[in-house]
Design brief:
CATH superfamily of the largest domain: TPP-binding domain
Strand content: 15-25%
Number of strands: 9
Order of helices and strands: HHEHHHHEHEEEHEHEHEEH
Strand order of the largest sheet: 3-2-1-7-8-9
CATH class of the largest domain: Alpha Beta
Radius of gyration: 19 Å
Largest sheet: 6 strands, parallel
Helix content: 25-40%
Number of domains: 2
Distance between the termini: 31 Å
CATH architecture of the largest domain: 3-Layer(aba) Sandwich
CATH topology of the largest domain: Rossmann fold
Length: 268
Amino acid sequence: MKRDSEQVGVGRDEAVAALMQLASGRGRFVAFTGAGISTESGIPDYRGPGGVWEQRKPPTIGDYLHNEETRRHYWERRRLDYPTLSSREPNQGHLALARLETMGVLTTVITQNIDGLHQKAGNADDRVIELHGTAHRIRCMTCERLYDAGDIQQRLLAGEPDPPCANCGGVLRSATVLFGESLPREALDRAISAAQECDFMLVVGSSLVVNPAAKLPALAKRQGAAIAIINRTVTAADELADVHILGEAGPTLNGFANAIAEQVEPSR
């Protein structure tokens, strides 16, 4: 049964009850998360007021590759910003999704985020599909060697303005998707398969405007999955939602995980 956001966005108890009714009898849960789930951990989103794109425009892949000055500006910002990002902790929403995985309910987390907070919360690395990559790895654009971000941070702190690859001397970059790049094919293929195979998709904190990732809920819907959307604002795909909850994700997801636990854990 279709419910509009006013019916389920009044309070946490009503929201949790609506999610429980929708999820009843559905076996394969997939979470699709965007920047909105991490704002409660103090990480700004991209499109909202005060978001990243309001403050500065990220470089395109072409400009980054060919413009040394662009790279120097990028690495200087990263030198200052990365310690803050790496110190952020998972919030109630991340922890709730990790609990759902532990209970055997959640099979996959598809995320547009690069912050690594799902893994930090306890989701298994092989259950998290990072569509836009991760900020916690650095890779060479020539030989593809991967570095831990902390190692490159130490080189930045030591005074290297544009650190090259120690293996081949190539240009280094964060292992994230820049403007002008396609999503990693393997990650996108895994996400498509997860969307096609799920029975219930929980969309959390995504405005659902960036394609092709934004098309995943529609793909799941066409295959018969129920769709729940939790977001602070309306999204570009609200018409897909069987349940749409306007509000903060953390308290609702925590309540949902608690309710699922009451059903699952006594039977073990």
